Structure formats: structure tokens, C-alpha cells
Structures
1.
Amino acid sequence: MFNFYLLVVILLISFLFFFIGLKEAKKLRLVYKNNLHSLPHYYGFYALLASLLPSLGIYFLMTIGDDFLFSHMIKSYIPDEVTNAKDYNFLIALAQINNSVEGLIFGTPPQWVTDAAELWKSWVQTSNIIVASLCLLTSIASGYYGFLKINQNFRSRNAVEKIIMTLLAASSVIAIFTTIAIIFSVVFESVRFFALIPIDEFLFGTVWNPQFEGAERAGSGQQGLSQYGSIPLFAGTFLISFIALCVSVPVGLFSAIYLSEYASSKERALFKPLLEILAGVPTVVYGFFAALTVAPFLRTTGSMLGLDVASESALAAGLVMGIMIIPFISSLSDDVINAVPQSLRDAGYGLGSTKNETVLKIVLPAALPGVVASIILAVSRAVGETMIVVMAAGLAANLTANPLEAVTTVTSQIVTILVGDQEFESAKTLSAFALALTLIIITLCMNFYALHIVKKYREQYE
Amino acid sequence: MSDKANDFKSLDLTVGDVFSKEARLKARNVNVYYGDKKAIDNVTIDIGNKEVISFIGPSGCGKSTFLRCFNRMNDTIDICRIEGQITLDNENIYDSNIDVVPLRARIGMVFQKPNPFPKSIYDNVAYGPRIHGLCENKEHLDSVVEESLKRAGLWDEVNDRLLSPGTGLSGGQQQRLCIARAIAVSPEVILMDEPCSALDPIATAKIEELIHELGNEYSIVIVTHSMQQAARVSKRTAYFHLGKLIEVGKTKEIFTRPQHNQTEAYISGKIG
Amino acid sequence: MSKKFINPLEATELVKNSIKKRRAKDNRLRLYGRIAIGMATCFLLFLFFSIFTKGYPGFFQYYVTLDIKFDRERIDPKGDLSDTSLYEGEASNIVNESLFSIINPQGRKAKKEARKIVSSGKDLRIAKLVKNDPSLFGTVTKVKFALDDDIDSFLRGYINRDTPESERRISDNVIAFVDKLSQENRISYEFSDYILKGSASGNPEMAGIKGAFFGSILTLSVCLLIAFPLGVATAVYLEEIAKKNKITEIIEVNINNLAAVPSVVFGIMGLAIFISIFGMPRSIPLVGGMVLALMTLPTIIISSRAAIRAVPPSVRDAAYGIGASKLQVIFHHVIPLAMPGMLTGTIIGMAQALGETAPLLMIGMVAFIVDVPNSVMDPGTVLPVQIFMWADFAERMFIQKTSAAIIILLGFLITMNAFAIYLRKKLERRW
């Protein structure tokens, strides 16, 4: 609540400066008979921005910074007998203190935790006072500075526009920061994982059997029962993706051909959005559908045919995922088929070829790169898909090509490892980040290649 | 190269009198590049006070590009680069401390295709005065809008539907609306880039009449495809070919006694 | 040329002979296309049919009507209607007594089983009733209580009374009690007031989506407040302001790549950056909204850029021609004209965010939280995650509740998408 009030007060001060600036500019305008460089409200905006931006900057820096500072400062208040203990972990101690600060007290925490929490609370109060006074002072001081700059020759419009342009440019950099954040969050942990488990074992091992082993054992590099060979996971991922492609490529491609070449405009208007609904259904719904409708259905059908179908078979997940990616293939293929110039079709029809011949021998070969790109994009979608496999595929890391057996995938392992309680520093937790890194690399490569093909293809017809 | 030498070179190229006694706009040795391509080659010309001057020439000769240099519209194109000097009342408009915004308020522009904003007729005309803060109150703004529409000869046709969208007017009306919009900010010079090329003959006739009238108040530079139009509306004419200014002179003389053989070829229909 | 040119007559003949085969091929391709479309449509219909038939009963449940003696002494021992006082009261005993007076259980075991017939939320229900209307005290009023989920499933026919007692979830005793209750017309099948008003609960008969619903609204609000301004600002910068140089190119490639990153990876980033490094709490809508915002940002940027590109250059020229500055052109003309397209993209992005589950699992929004979140800093969950959690529970009744929650989620998604389509149709401008 404190933060909220502080922000409101800062906003109010900056609005005050807006009106002061506006009034001053109007006065100047009367004095100089319309010879003012900019419209009066730009002077107001300038004063507003001058007051608001520096204090907001200080506010965010300080609120982000104080946690770092406190957790560093608290270190010296943790008693020696705790820090010297064998299973001591600073992050756990910090979490205990933080919980106590937030009033989440489980059982009776040790005395030092309560003391440290009290200390922490007093620091928070002090820092609140410092932040508030600093922000308010800055907003008044910088607002006054902005006000002082208002005179007849000051180009306030240009100044305001420059600030806004900078803000716009800054927001576009968020995309880069996001990418950096993603890389940062997986690479560091992955490096630590590869320090524990050799990279070749991860990439080429055929057994995936992670266990929580306690931080100290994994830390000392001792090999326990755990094995981190990722091949079964990738095999499972690609098996499910392959099944999905077997469903979605024929259905998607034929739908695209039909919609772009054969369908009347009415049919097109009806079926195109209908196919796109499939892409809009949340994946958790598909997962539920796969686990509770498709999987039991396959199991009963299988047992009638005398086949033993696992209740969490790759087939169920793959089929449903196939349904999900139909629209990715159909709408992108539809786009590229439509982009084939009409003149090529006319050439075909002019020779007296049937629609079938025109489509298969002229249009489709011309559109082939785009179609391939759409399939690659669909595969990358399937590889990264999480909820369907979490809900419908199992957790058993079988290395098999039999679609009736249970397999597991990269994404479902990531979710299982990272959801819920984690052990700090354990190879199991870290393995999720290594899996994520591999997953990102694979999907990005596919995406890159697909976009490259599409771009080349577009250039061909432009 | 000294300025003198440059002047000499350009004068050597251009036939006729490029200078004007009461010059408002002066272009000196202007070169324009699109990337590596040279679009305007060393052009020097004056635009006089309250005179109507036409730029003619075959398509792609650079006349529109050159026109857009006068109000720095080429700034909006990234790859466009300009050398040389253009002055408005002896002030270099490409000087680094010149703000293009007031400059464009002084030098208005009307475009090839009528391009009213998708707003009401009133808002279209009032937009300029609003952003430049020309009017103190609503009544003043109303009278500016009315006067501009009257000068553009549109008032009688639209005074009962000022709040309906400007895009709903006919092509000729839209173009007159654009002219009204340009004169609402009280410019000193109006640049017109083939203002009638998208219009039918009747609308064209109305616009030409309007240009003729406006010529008493403003300096007008008009780029046109049609030699007849140039002959009808302007006192001076400049003929461009492949980015070069070939010949400048009184309109009558250019059309009756062209001095340069390329001008003659164009006028007699051999280039086009 | 060694071979002679084909004689036209001969050619006509050849074509004539083969035409039937070629036509057949043509028809076959058309048929394949129709089958493909038909299959896709069937998948869709089957998906919706299966969800709706399962989910529709989830909006209803069985209730039992009992005569409750509202005895103030026993329900509200402190007499101040406070939570602690009502908690100390013995409302459940009153309900059980009323129940026992009808079914009359004999023996300890039967009584124990009988107590479970009425959902364990009975005391809360009575507490709520007397809080809303203290004048109930001293009266005997008929009150409806939800039945336990096993009995609910039995009444729906999922539990067969012919199976041996040891193999079914409810005993013969309970079946007899339920029969007795239905003989007295005390059992009714009604619209469930828990599905919409209830929150997460381990008892399926009391579980509802209220908490998840508000969690979704809070999370989406955060997402919208972050993603929309950032997305539009980025799109405007890239289309209108940025010079075409290396940095712009890097940003563009970045945005395209972000659109391809699997959603679960955004969750990992949220976990590593927002929670581990910035020390934000787990499970809160603020972090969820931030993660979803970064995830939907590419969608919004890409569609906003397309919308900006569709604004004709003549409008910009016109504004520049009168002396508008770059920002005036952008804010007075380009953004208003591109707004419908930007909004459409944003709504589609929000629909995507509303249905997203995986990244939110990563940042701990999967926790079991009974309270409805009041602010973006309160722990909460969202609809799709609630669906995911319910789908994992073993109780039969949760399947119906899950499907009912899915229907509600799909309802919102369809509404949002329909609104986007409407907006596009309505505000679309032809230049």
C-alpha cells in the first residue's frame, strides 16, 4: 500500500508541475504576442515529464535494489553455528527469513530467524522513508528545473518529442531484454548442470532417471543412481510430433488445397475460421480431451483388437496434438498457395489442364518451399507444446518407437521437475534448465530455417 | 570548387533567366540523391513573390522530387540526401537549427492524390491552425475555417455538412478541401504536386481557376504533366529533363519560342 | 526433330480418350480435400461435443433439503456473529441431527457414514445464512445442502448399486439412507451454486471457479497493462521512427524469435528472473501477468506493425505538408487509424494469454489457494491452471467440474475472438 500511495503522490506532484508550466507558458504567450515557439501545453508536458521521469527512475531502482542490499547485509546476522553446519545453504536461510517477514510462519522457527526477520522489517521501514523522501525531493527539484527552463526561446515541443521518442525506442529494446533474460536464465544453470554431468552423457545417454539426491552429494560430483541421458526424452518428443504430423499434414494440406483452389467463396468463409478455432482452443483443454476421452477410447479399441495400449500412450497425445496443429499447416499453406501468381495458373488452364493437374503440377511445386516452411513451423510448435504431453503422455522415459507405449517428452520433464518443491543446486533441478536450453536451440533453429525459406520464396514472386 | 564556378556551371546548363527580382525562395546548385542515384542534378532557380510558376517535364524527370525539397518533405525518406542550398527569404531552410515544423507551416503543400484526413471537413481544415496554435478561441477557429473554405471555393458546397467526413466528398471537392487545409495555416508559398492529375476535366477547370485566384495572394509552385495547364495558370515555366533544369522563362515564351532543343522537342510532343 | 509433329486430329482424339481418367483424378483430389475439411470439422465438433456433454452436468448437482432449527446458542455461542464465534458453534451437529431424524441411522458405523452424506461445507453454509439474515435465529427453516460427491455420482448413475459393496465407493447403508431421502422428496437436482461462487476445494461438491476467475482477471489486467503500451510503442518505433539499421534489424529478428519460443520457456524465465533474482513472491498474478505480457508481446507487435503499415502514406504526407511534427503525425493520425488493427491483435493476444497454462505452472500459480485474490500481490491461480489441477484429481465429480470450467473458459475465449472479429469488420477501413 505504501508503494501505491508514494506513486500516487509522485503523479500528483508531476500534474501540479504540468499546470504550473501551462500557466507560465500562457503568460509568456500573452507577453510575446504568439511568438512562443510551441503550444503552451507542451511547456506543461515538459515540466510534467521533468518531474515524473527522474523520480520514477529512482523509485524503481531503489525498490529493486533494496532486496539485494538487505540479503547481503543479513548474511552477517546469521549465527556462526548455523553457517558452519554441514547442510547450510544461504538461499534456504534467506527464504526462512523472508517467510517470517511476510508472516508465513510454519511451526516455531529458530530464534535467529525471528531476530533476523525483525531486523529486516526495521530495514524495510528505514528504506521506505529514504525512498519516499528521495523520490519526493527529486520530483519537486527536477520539476522545478523543468519549470525554470520555460522561456520564450525554449523549444519545448522538440524537447518533449525527444523524450517521448526515447521512451518509444526504449520500449522496443524490451524485446532484446526478454531474449537476454531467457538466455541468461537457462544458460547459467545449464553450465552448472554440465559441470555436474558431462555434456556427452546428457546428449548421448540413453537412460533418463533423475533422482533427488541431496545437494551435497550432487555437489561433490558423486554419481548416484541418477542418470541424465536425454535421448529417450527427445525420442519421445519426436515420436509424438511425428504422430501429430501424420494427422495434421494430410488433413492440413488437403484442406489448404481445397480451400484455395476448389472451394466456393461461401465455403471458404465458413471453413477457414472454423479451422482457426482449432488453434484458439487452449492446450489445457486438448490435454484434458486427450487424457479423458481419446486415451480411454484407444485403450478399449486396442483391447478389442487384442493390442496392449498403455493408458498414457504416445498415440493419444500425438493424435490430439495433430488436431491442434492442423490450422498452423492449413492457414500458412493456404497463404503460400494463394501467393502463387494467378498467371501461372492461367498458363496451366490455357493449355487445357484440369484443376488437378494445375494444382499438383504447377501450383504446388511453386508453393512447395512455403508448404515445407509451414510444416517446419508446425513441428517446432509440436516440440515445444507442453500441456497436452503433461496431461496425456506419461513420465516413463521409455526409448521406444512403439506409439502404443508410454513415452515422455522434454517439456513434460521440465514441468515435472520445476513445478512444486525443488531442491537447490541438485542435478535434477538443473537438468530442467539444460533441457530447456536444448529445446530453445531446436525450436529456434527450426523457426529460423522456416522463416528463411519463406523469405526466399516471397522474394521469388515479388 | 568555388561557388562562382558552381554557379557558372549551372547557368551553363540552364537556358533562360533562372533569377527573379523579388525572390522568396532561392535554390542554389541543388543536388538530390536517392541512395547512390542522383535524382536532381545541380539545379538553380528562384521563386518570386506572388508568382505562379509551373514545373513541367516528362515523368521521372525529378520535378516532383525537386518540389518536395522546398518544404523538406524529402526528410521523411530515409535514403534521400540533399546537397546545395535553398533559402526562404535568405534563410537557409536546410540549416541545422531550422525547425521543419514552422517551415512547413510557411510553405504549404497540396498533393497529387487528394488526401483528406479521415476526419470531418471542419477538422481537416482546423487541424493545421490547431497544431500550430494559430487561433485563440473557437470563434476565431470557426472564422479561419470558413475563410479558408471560401478561398478554396468550397464553402457554398459544404457549409451545411461541415461535420461529415472529408473522405465522403467527390475527388475535385476533396482536392479543394486539401487546398483549404493548406491555406488555413496562412502559408506564404504553396507547393502543388500535380494537383489535378486524379481529377476529371470539370473539377480540373475549377482547381485551375482557384490557382489563378490564389496567385494574387501566394507564391505558387505547381508541378504538372499537362502543358496546357501550365500555359493556363502560370506566368513562368521551368522545364526539367532527367534531373536537370533545362530551361526557364515566361510561360508564353517557353511555349512559343523555346530556346533549347530539348524543350522544343518536349513541347512539340517528341519527348513525353 | 526426328519425330513428326502430331497431327491435330490425332491430338484431339488422344485428349478425348484420356479425358475421363483425368476428370476422375480431378474429382478424387476434390474429394480428398472435402474429406480433409470434413475430418477437421469432425474433430472440432467431437471435441466440443465431448466437452459439452461432460461439462453440462457439471453446472448442476444434487442437493438435500433439511429442516434446520436455528438455535442461536449452538450456532453462535458468543452471540456476536463473528467468524470465530460461528466457527466454535456446532452447526454441523445441528445439520446431522436433522438428517438423522429422517434416516434414523443405527449403530456407530452407520452414524459415521450418515454424517458424510451431507457435504462438509454445511457449517459454512449455515454461517453464511445467519450472517446475511440474523432473523433466522429461533426459526426452523428448510435449507438445501450439497450432497457428498460420491452420493452425487451414485445418483447420476455412475455408481451401480448391483456391484458388490466392497467394490463401490459407498456402502449399502448409505444407499439405503439416500433411498429414504429420495422417498421423502428431499433430494433435488439443481443448478450448482458452488461452480460459480465456490473456490478451490478438495471436496469436489464444493469446488468452484471463483478464485481462478478473479485470478485470471487480475493476471490478464497486468498482462494487458504491460503488453499493450509496450507492444504499440515498439510497433510505432519500428515502423515510424527507427532508421533501417543493424539495431533495428536485430530487434526485428528478436521479435520473430520470441514468437517461436515455447511458452514453457517463458515460465522458466519468470522463475529464474522475476522470482529468483528480483525476489518476487511465487504464485502471484503480478508475476503471472508479467510473464504472459512478455509472451504475448510479439503477437501484439506483429499485428500492430501490420496495422500501422496499412495506414496509407498519403495521410502522413498530408499532415507533414501542413507542418505537423513527426510525433503529431504519429499520435494524431497514424495511431488512431491503426487502432482497430492494434486492438484486434491485442484481443487475440489476450485470448492466447487467457488460455495459457504452462508458464504459469512454472511460477507456482498451481498452488492450492482457497482465498479469492484481492490484489495482484495475493497468491492466486487462473482458470486454465485450475482446469489442469482438477483434471488431475481422482474423484469422478471433478471430471464434470473440469469440463464445466472448460466450457466457461471456452465461452470467454469465443467471446473475445468474436469481439475481435466484430471490431475488425466494423472498423475496417478501405483505402
Note: Confidence is low (pLDDT under 50) at residues 215-222 of chain A.
2.
Amino acid sequence: MTSQPTTPTTTATDDVVRVEDLQVNFYTQLGVVRALNGVSFNIPRGKVLGIVGESGCGKSITGMSIMQLVASVGKTEGGKILFNESAGGNPINILDYERNSPEMRKIRGNNISMIFQEPMSSLNPCYTISDQIEEAIRLHQTEDKVESRKRAIEVLTKVGMPNPDRIADSFPHELSGGMRQRAMIAMALSCTPTLLIADEPTTALDVTTEANILDLMRELQSEIGTSIMFITHNMGVVAQMCDEVAVMYLGRVVERATVDDIFYEPRHPYTIALLQSIPRLGRTKGILASIEGSVPDPYSRVTGCPFHPRCPVAIKGVCDTILPEETIVDAAKGHTVRCHLYS
Amino acid sequence: MLNYIARRLINMIVLLVAISFIGFFIIQLPPGSFLDVELQRLRSLGGDVSRDQIKALELRYGINDPFLVKYWKWVERSSRGDFGTSYMTDQSVGERIWGRLSVSLGLSLFALLFTWLISIPIGVYSATHRYTIPDYVVTLIQFIGLAVPGFLLALILLIFATRYFNQQVGGINSSEFMDQPMSVAKFIDMVNHIWIAVVVLAFGATAGLTRVMRANLLDVLNMQYIQTARAKGLDEAVVIWKHAVRNAIHPLVMSLGTLLPALIVGETLVAQVLSLPTIGPMYLDALRAEDMYLAGTILVMLSGLLLIGNLLADLLLAWVDPRVRLE
């Protein structure tokens, strides 16, 4: 692990992506689901940002929004996603582009790429691994067939494929889950993107393979310098992978800190509860702590702090009426929290 | 792969032999024989047929031979390319079938092409524009297509063609071209005649296949690899046509195997209405007249087409989807 907890974040000046007050609503037949209620966070250049939260908190939607790949029932109704290709450059607002516009397609796969949760179904069964990797290379980098093939083999070698030439001509169904995820990573990195969005890339893998893939991603990250937005619900993975963490609850970022602060000085009651619900070998006695209640119905709106119905330290008359603002608890480390206990 | 094709071909021959045996057996099951039908016809014309004449006819057609002897004679001669003589017309069966089978086959292939060319793009459009007005319109037309019987549609088109386009309809050629060799003018005349049949045959099949294409594409569009393709920065049209359609087309390819003989037999009613010289009406007549050799040969040929169609469909599927490729 190479994270340096004491380094103050220089994020204010050099972010790859800065998401500001992002709001995404889903219009379904049952009603409106407010998937993202003003999400704000930044991804510092060359760092790994973990996005953590329960299912349905909006982690994946946030990732998809940056790629503009949210299903068409989901409407982005406010906010900005500022993407800065190189340090010191002029950031562009991704949301200014149409979903299927040439400008947006040029960013996708080239500047920002994505790895998905299901390695079993994220590769097209009808085309060989090399076909699928070369497709991206030819789209963004070179149209030369020999050159694109060469680069595909290179990137497959880079992700530690044992026999890249043979793997290149294999079909997805001929590979194991771990191999497929390596192939996906190879595809995502084939155009050396500035940002890689990894949406629970190891959730579907067994623990041994998971450890291998995480090591690989860490290695490649320090080698290529790609920034990573790592979406997960697994705190163990966060500890292993991330430099900084944003904790999400019901479509909002509730706490944002360095990885060490999250584990050693968590502030938000939700973060604390999340950490308490991790089983620890030999240390846990009795029943494992869990967060009371469950995530509220997505069609209803909770007044005040969205976490107050489940919060053990909620202040009556405050938490259930006023929505807490983002408060800075440690400016040097960039530690912020949305909770009335600290405002 | 070659090994696999060879195995399939051997299987097909065994199957054809079994089909011919059972088919021949069933065709001669009804009481009486072609001769009874023929005698009745002669008597109704007023003539009387003497016992000696009947004997002579029986001997000539081998009516009283045991089943196995008849079957064996037929198979043995068929293997030399002689499918026997039709009782009804005294013509060679091969000669009678050949002309009609080629018309049927041509018509079916046209209809098949038409079906695919229409149902794939419409199915794709319908799926990518789900729950929009064009999708509802397409769906409505599909249900009408499934519900209206082919012969009725043929009649309606006939009326339109004669009344508003002043076209000579029925048959595959106008009378002036009947006995002429093939020429450009004759070909154009033929197209003018068979488009009704092609449209009628294709309409029902198109309705069904469009529905299947739509449903399948909707499933495939939810797959993760479609998101992967989009995340690469591909244009939505490439995502749909290169990544989604290829995965959604399996049932259409598989239906090819059964569609070919279905189109050939399914046209019987339509062919009657349009008086097309296809195999369907002939098969029906042959069965009613207990014309065993003719009926038996048609049955075996249709079965052969079914088997060949299935083999082609399997090979095509293996080409489309690597997962079904066999070692």
C-alpha cells in the first residue's frame, strides 16, 4: 500500500474529476426515484478514490453519470461534472455534451473507461478477446490493424495473462472469471485513460482471485498513473485499494476523508456503524453489530438528515427537520462530513 | 467440424429411410386403392369396366402386391433416379414433381429473404424505440399479420391488383408467355405475378419473427456487455448492430430450419387461391387419390428439405455464435 495519510490533499488545484451538486432522478411508473440528491466530491489526479455505501445509495449511478451511461429513464437534472484531462488544463463539463454525441464518445473509453461488476457477462460472447480490445484501440488510437493487434497483446501481457497470444484469440466463454476480469481491465486500460471507474470489479470473484486482481490494479495504477474511482461496498477492499474515501448514503456523500481517517477517525454515525458491522477474526464477541432498520423506500422522501431514522445519536427536533450541510472537520486533510453533530 | 457434418449427413440418410417407410405405410393405410378411385371415375362417365379389364389394370399398377414388395420396388427404382409413375396422369413422378418443386422452392426462398429483410430491421427499431407510437403501430400490424389467414390476404390483394393496377393475376406467367423460353420480358412478367404470393407468404412469418426479434433484442440490450461496448465509446448504431443483434438473432437462425418446409407446405391454400403451380396442391391431390408413388416421393423430398434446412441452420448458428461451435 502506498497511501500517504499525512500528505495534505492538493485536490483544490488538481482534480481529474470534480462532481458538483449532481442530481439524477429516475422517472418510473411507480413514481420518481431521487437517485442522486446533490452529490459532490473530487477525484485527485493519480489517486484512488473509494466510493462506499449500501446497495441503492447511488454509487453505481454516480459512476455511470460520469460516463453518461445512465439508462434513459434516469434524467440528470442539475449539477456539474468537471473533467480535467491534464494538470493545469481547462476543465470541461461533461454534462454539456449529449449522451451519444461524438464529443462524449471520444471521452468514453479513451479518457475515461470503466470496469463492471460481472466479469462473466461484461464481454460479448460472439467476439474474441483481441477483437474486443482492438475495437477500442482502433476507435481512439490507431486504425492500423497490425499495430492495434500489437497493442492488444501488449496490454494483455501487462495485466499478467500467462499466454497473451493464445488468450487474444480465445472467446470469453473459454476463460475463467478472473481471466475475464483481467481481460476487461486490459480493455479499459488499452487507451491509457486518465480516469478508470471500477464498479465493484471484484465482488463476483472468489477471495484469492480478488486479491490478485486488486494487486494488479494497484500495480498498474502506480505504473500508468491513472486515477481510479473505486466503487465498492467492501471496507476491506477499501483499506487495500484506496487513498481517499467518500461514503455515500441515499444519494449524498455523507463523509469524505483520507482512508486512514475513515478507519481511525470516522465522524459520521453512518460511517461508524458501517465500520462496526465488519466482522473481525478473533475480536468480535457475541452478535455482530448491524445498522438498525433498513434503507427507506426509494419513492418516499425523508425530511432532515436522510440517516436520522436509523441514527443512534440523532438529535430530536434538529436531525429530523434540517438537512445538515457539508462541514469541514479537518481542512488540512480535506476531511468533511454532513452531520449536525459537527456543525 | 467436417467430421460433424459427415455424421449429420449419415444421420440424415437413416432418418430419410425411416420417414419414407413410415410415410409410405401411412399413405396406403386407407381402405381401397387408386384403382377404386379410377374405376369410380370411369363408371361415373357411363362406361362399364369388365372383370378382365380390372384384372389387367391391377396387374399393371401392381395394386395387389404386398406392402413390402411395393415399398421395395419404389425404393429400388428411386435409388436409380426413377421415382415411379403417377397413377393419376401416367407421367413419371420425377417429371411431375420437378417443375412444381422448383416453383415452390423459388417462391419460398423469395419469401424467406423478404421475411428476413423486413423483420430484422423492424424488430430492431421496435425494440430500440420501445413504448413509442411507431412501436405500437408495428405491434398492431404484427398482431394483424398473425391473425389474418394467408388465403384471405391473397384474395384481398388479388382484388386490389386486378381492380386498381389492372394486372392479370393468377399463375406465374401471363398466357402470352406460357410456352415461351425464359427471357427478360418473361421474367418481369413472372415477378409481376408472384409478388402477391411472396407478400402473402412472408407477411405471417414476418409478423412472428419481428416479435421474436424485438423480445430478444430487449433482453440482450440489458446485458452487461452492451454497456461495455458503449463504455468503449462506440456509436450507438454500432453497439446495436454489431454487439446486440448478433446475440439476439439465434432464434431467427434456428427458425430457418423449420421455416423452409413450413413455407413450402403452408402455401397450399395460398397457391390454390392464386392458382400457382406449386407442390402443395399437388401433394394434396396425390394424397386424396392415393397416388402412392407421387405422394411418397413428395413426402420424402419435403422431409429432406426439413433436414437440410436444419443442418444449414445449425451451421449458420455455429458461425454466428462461437459458443455452439463443436470440436
Note: The first strand of chain A starts at residue 15 and ends at 28.
